Amino acid sequence: MNRRLFVSAGAAAIVAAAGGYFYQRSDRPAAPAAEDPLAALLAMSLPDLQGKPQALSQWRGQPMVINFWATWCAPCVKEMPELDDMHKKAGKVRFVGIGVDTAENMRKFVEKVPVSYPLLVMGAGAIDVLRGLGNPAGGLPFTLVLNADGSINQKILGQIDPITLEKTVLALAA
C-alpha cells in the first residue's frame, strides 16, 4: 500500500511539473518592457518655482536642452550664466533647468543669478531619473540635448564646454 501511494504521488508530481513547464512556455503575451527613461522624463509634469505644474511635453517637437543641476553643485552654478546666454541666442531651442534641490533653495539662487529659462523642481528623486538616462553615478551637472523629434543628440556629464554646446544649439536652431 505504501509503495502504491509513493508511486502515485511521484507520478502526480511529474505531471504537475510538466504542466507547469508547458504553461510557462505557452503563447502568453510577454510582460511589457520597462518604459524608456527619456520618454518617462518627457511625460512628466514638474512644479516650477511658483509651484505651478509644467508638463515637459509642452515643448514636444522642439529641440531642447535639459540641464539637471543643484544650488549646492559648484560646476552647476558656474555654468548657469553660460546656459542663460545660450538660451537667449538659441531661437527655437528650448532650455529647461531641472533642479535636484528644493524650490526654496532654487528661488534664493535665482534672486542672485537670474535665469531666463524655466526652472522646474524634481528634488532628490531626480537621481534615479539621471541613472535611467545613462548617468549611473547620478552626477551633476548633467545636460541632455534633444533633437526636435525627441531623440538624444548629446549627453554631457559635468560642466558644459560652452563653445561646443553653443555650436550644437545653434545648429539645432537653424
Automatic annotation (TrEMBL):
**InterPro entries from the UniProt entry:** AhpC/TSA (IPR000866), Thioredoxin-like_sf (IPR036249), Thioredoxin_CS (IPR017937), Thioredoxin_domain (IPR013766), Thioredoxin_ResA/DsbE_sf (IPR050553)
GO MF annotations, alphabetized: antioxidant activity; disulfide oxidoreductase activity
Query: An example of a Gene Ontology BP annotation on this entry?
Result: cytochrome complex assembly
Pfam families reported for this sequence: AhpC-TSA
Q: Which residues form the Thioredoxin domain?
A: 35-174
List UniProt keywords, sorted A-Z. Answer: Cytochrome c-type biogenesis, Disulfide bond, Periplasm, Redox-active center
Q: Which residues cross the membrane?
A: none
Q: Where in the cell is it found?
A: Periplasm
Q: Which GO terms describe its cellular component?
A: periplasmic space
Q: What is this protein called?
A: TlpA family protein disulfide reductase
Biological classification of the source: Bacteria, Pseudomonadati, Pseudomonadota, Betaproteobacteria, Burkholderiales
